[in-house]
UniProtKB/TrEMBL annotation, chains A, B:
NCBIfam families: PRK07907.1, PRK08201.1, PRK09104.1. This is Dipeptidase. Gene3D superfamilies: 3.30.70.360, Zn peptidases. It is an enzyme of class 3 (hydrolase). Its EC number is 3.4.13.-. It comes from the Bacteria. Keywords: Dipeptidase, Hydrolase, Metal-binding, Protease. Residues 195-352 form the Peptidase M20 dimerisation domain. One of its GO terms (molecular function) is dipeptidase activity. It comes from Virgibacillus kekensis.
Length: 456, 456
């Protein structure tokens, strides 16, 4: 029953791309309040599109923060299943802007890729779902199953308002299963089912020494330098073998079974050196880079700063120094417990002469693992293979999607992660892009999937 | 013979302050090329003033960088000594500008202090010299001795062009002795002779990992994080006992003799906790804070940065991380040797998986020690005491004035450091200021000193 829809998608590819470009041109950066107007414009774009497709109920809902776009399609009738589709229309900041080869908000196709902030994460993938719904409506006059659409504007800043709403208004979001397209495949055109996601937590460390920057000649030797103090604290948290040296960090983490190591070895993953430009990979002692990224917890400093950053030299003892740290967690690690362990460690090792303060990152998530042999997962794998002409692989990945954990926690529904990103997409970085192959074959996968899902 | 000049300074104090404010209002920041026009304006101000005073030859000399203001006064005749007066009209950047209580380039008097960038370092002190020359010319019709004025615009960026000129045009600067007012007293209104200054060297460490910022979920566990790597490198360079742990760093440093420790103990220095806001001082194991700042070498990270610095969280593995390091040196430490030791240490400890590059700071200086019982020094001490009504103390200080070392190296002339700054001046920081007491009594000291110097 997906034939007509597939034909429609092929025939209308240019218009669809033009429409996607319109969506990507809206700089809906959620972290920065100067983009409030753009955020609202992106929500408005989705509202209009959902109405045009023919959804029964379309609402831009107030969340206390950036609005939630919510829609319902009920015309498949009470016997058809209902899917909850989650995505987000907000994007990461674009800095450093001078490293972009084209304007992040003027989409441009180069070498078979669509370059724009949000092309992969997640506006591009959200758009594909809507285009497939449009294709079904225009050709069959209906979508094969009932749909609830939930597209938020605060994913890149922690989704806190959405989590509250998911808890408060359960009826609004109840469904038979959920589908999320906010992930990637292990390689371009390699259908990939994610059966595990990492959890997430973080802290910010603020070190304060003197109450103003000091002349290093007048005060060097009398006060503790906050940047030096911070370097001591940070160096004590992960060693050169990439082992986190915070007491208790690995408590509860189950050893990686040989079968899973085998599974990971067999995934034809990306060439890290090629995609990242590093001369050699570095991973936790006893684990390969693939094992570490997919199945072992990680500790990263995302940003660190203190003192003079300009050209040349400024001979000061800085007044403050800051580090932002996040950890990716695996099953068995409770985010709040890990956060407390990090905090305790920092206070324990903090040297005298400076004041250390910890800000706990509010966003956190437990790791998530799904059953790879659930029928809805198997149907997804089948649709993938049909569209891409290649066997689907099953992997765990290092990313965190806190909303997955939240939806599971509240609704106990199966969640299918249907992602079409690729390792070269440069999410969160300059020159984010999305392959047109993923755009085409991804929509094909979705069109097949809705037909498969209702196929008894 | 200084009576008339002193009277003139008192009677014309308001006009002199107005003129100084005009000088301080010029944002002559040397580090930033947007201030090139202001740099030239500051040089022009000095040129005009020196001509108005009645100097015989006044020139704004091209240096290849910011201009040098040079002037000669020869009317004291061939039997009178010639002094070389060195100072600088350039100032440090003002960032972070929002921490200033008033505009750094709109001088403002509050609680007996003149607030402005450069009020203490060094425009205020340069101006005092010119005002005293003006006072002598207007009252006696002559200055007691011959003068060569050398006021540069590149002190805050390393004085490299001046050093070349000092070597190339020795005749231009030859004199019987040099006077520099670019230092401070150990406490407000406490006459202070500096008999030792520290040397100076530095490096910048650049660590590069991946060729772009990476998503920490996709790549955490596969690549070395440059910020983590940098924290390991930095933590290995100075320990928590404030001892520099770079091999060979202390080689050639003579132990601090008990007599000198006694001398340092007896100096009524500043209260570091009060002036810096730290809860406790921290200094090299085995040395007090005063001993460490005055007479022991120091190692400071002046700035460090890598990755995300904005609001909230950005879950990346940064592509690069940078640290700017400078050391203050004591007699026995060769700046270039220390620089090489720092470099070697960094390369030795650099972890795998990242590329580490060192930029050697071009500016460097050897430490300097003068004979405190030289007659020109003793006369300076006497003039100080006369003006301030208090015994002069003799101290070593942690600051570096590379020009001192250069002048001594080339010209072998005695150098008298006549400084009037105070520990509360916040040099290089927001809210730089200079006490009006120092302005008044400093000019009095200088007026006495020129009379003393020619007194056989």
């Amino acid at each position: 029953m997906s034939e007509q829809a597939l034909k429609y998608l092929k025939e209308n590819r240019d218009q669809l791309l033009t429409k996607l470009n319109e969506f990507l041109s809206i700089p809906s950066v959620s972290t920065d309040s100067v983009h409030k107007k753009d955020i609202n414009e992106a929500a408005k774009f989705l509202e209009t599109y959902l109405n045009d497709i023919g959804f029964d109920k379309v609402e831009v809902q107030d969340t206390g923060g950036h609005p939630l776009v919510y829609a319902q399609y009920n015309q498949a009738g009470p016997d058809a299943p209902t899917v909850l589709l989650y995505g987000h229309y907000d994007v990461q900041p674009v800095d450093p802007i001078d490293l972009w080869d084209s304007d992040p908000f003027k989409p441009e196709i180069r070498d078979g890729r669509l370059y724009a902030r949000g092309s992969s994460d997640d506006k591009g993938q959200v758009f594909m779902h809507l285009a497939v719904f449009e294709a079904y409506m225009k050709t069959e006059g209906k979508i094969p199953l009932n749909v609830k659409v939930c597209i938020e504007g605060e994913e890149e800043i922690g989704s806190e308002n959405l989590y509250q709403i998911l808890r408060d208004r359960q009826e609004q979001f109840e469904a038979d299963f959920a589908v999320i397209s906010d992930t990637g495949m292990v390689a371009k055109n390699q259908p990939t089912i994610l059966y595990g996601l990492k959890g997430f937590t973080g802290i910010e460390i603020n070190v304060t020494g003197p109450d103003h920057d000091l002349h290093s000649g007048m005060y060097g030797g009398a006060v503790r330098n906050p940047v030096v103090a911070l370097s001591h604290i940070l160096a004590s948290m992960k060693n050169e073998e990439e082992v986190v040296t915070v007491d208790g960090f690995y408590d509860g983490v189950e050893p990686l079974p040989e079968e899973e190591r085998e599974l990971i070895r067999n995934v034809e993953g990306e060439d890290y050196q090629e995609t990242t430009g590093v001369k050699e990979t570095v991973s936790e002692k006893g684990y390969t880079a693939k094992e570490h990224t997919m199945a072992r917890p990680t500790f990263e400093i995302n940003g660190m700063y203190g003192g003079y950053q300009g050209e040349g030299t400024k001979t000061i003892i800085p007044s403050t120094a800051t580090a932002k740290i996040t950890c990716r967690l695996v099953p068995g690690q409770d985010p709040e417990r890990i956060q407390s362990l990090l905090e305790k460690h920092v206070y324990d090792v903090a040297p005298s002469g400076v004041t250390v303060e910890i800000k706990k990152e509010k966003l956190s998530a437990k790791a998530y693992k799904v059953e790879p042999n659930h029928p809805l997962i198997e149907k997804a794998a089948k649709s993938y293979t049909k569209a891409f002409g290649k066997e689907t692989v099953y992997v765990r990945m290092g990313g965190s999607i806190p909303v997955v954990e939240t939806i599971e926690d509240i609704y106990k529904m199966p969640i299918v992660l249907l992602g079409f990103g690729t390792p070269d997409d440069r999410l969160h970085s300059p020159n984010e892009s999305f392959p047109l192959d993923s755009f085409d074959k991804g929509m094909e996968t979705l069109a097949h999937y809705w037909a498969e899902v209702i196929d008894k």
